[in-house]
Amino acid sequence: MLTIGCHLSSAKGYEAMAKEAGKLRANTFQFFTRNPRGGKAKEIKESDVKAYAKKAEELEIKKILAHAPYTLNACSAQESVREFAFLTMKDDLERMEYTPGNCYNFHPGSHVNQGAEAGITMISEMLNQILVPEQSTTVLLETMAGKGSEVGRNFEEIREILDRVTLTEKMGVCLDTCHVYDAGYDLVQDLDGVLTTFDNIIGLNRLKAVHLNDSMFGLGSHKDRHAKIGEGKIGLEAIVRIINHPALKHLPFYLETPNDLDGYAREISLLKEHYKE
């Protein structure tokens, strides 16, 4: 079975997201832990969590993915921004234990002219301060397109962060198809080669989720502009190969395409039609 969903608003709580996913015929979903631009997180109600668990079981919703706010930058040149990143992630991971056994994704950050080595050091140090043995949540580093001074622009930088984290078993990777393609990895003409490279550098066992997005600008552009499925430079044919690839098809896929809910429903239906059991 294809495990696929999209990004949903968390404003009304967990149960509401599960119901929305059900309407879209999704069996997973992604959500922001708080406003994507930062700020205080909404209070979690235990009654909502219990109602969600019941609804998720009813709808056969698989592992869900929480996304950190975009303003979380663990390797900023500003100490106050790094402090926000630390406090936000620490709080988010504590809150994630209300729905145990899921994943939490974040953008590694931008080193802002300090250099990738400095950025990698700060990110891994923050993770070592926050991760605890008893947590049930797996923290995912997202592959990035390489615009500006982003860390995570290639598989080597992702691997370098993972190697420096002590509780490495609490870590994984979320591969974003648009980002990876924009970073210069040719998912269209050489999917097998890209996955072999990923496996050799990071290890496919660390790949826990896929952000499934088409790319507006294309291979090596470093632009990070998502397109609707089949309307970008990756194209439907290549995306169908991705969801059916033996190394990927068991993973959860999350749409972050520029869509409204009706658009997500159409894409979910389209991809289910092309998925080979």
Can you tell me about this structure?
By secondary structure, this protein is of the alpha/beta class. The protein is built from 9 helices and 10 strands. It has helices spanning 14-23, 46-59, 79-96, 116-130, 155-164, 177-183, 191-201, 236-244, 261-274; strands spanning 4-6, 30-32, 65-67, 103-106, 138-142, 171-176, 207-212, 214-215, 226-227, 253-255. Strands 1-10-7-6-5-4-3-2 form an 8-stranded parallel β-sheet. Strands 8-9 form a two-stranded antiparallel sheet. α1 runs parallel beside α2 (46-59). It is globular, with a radius of gyration of 18 Å. The protein starts with a strand and ends with a helix.
Question: Mind sketching the topology for me?
Answer:
Layout: E1 4-6, H1 14-23, E2 30-32, H2 46-59, E3 65-67, H3 79-96, E4 103-106, H4 116-130, E5 138-142, H5 155-164, E6 171-176, H6 177-183, H7 191-201, E7 207-212, E8 214-215, E9 226-227, H8 236-244, E10 253-255, H9 261-274
Parallel strand pairs: 1-10, 2-3, 3-4, 4-5, 5-6, 6-7, 7-10
Antiparallel strand pairs: 8-9
Helix pairs in contact: 1-2, 4-5
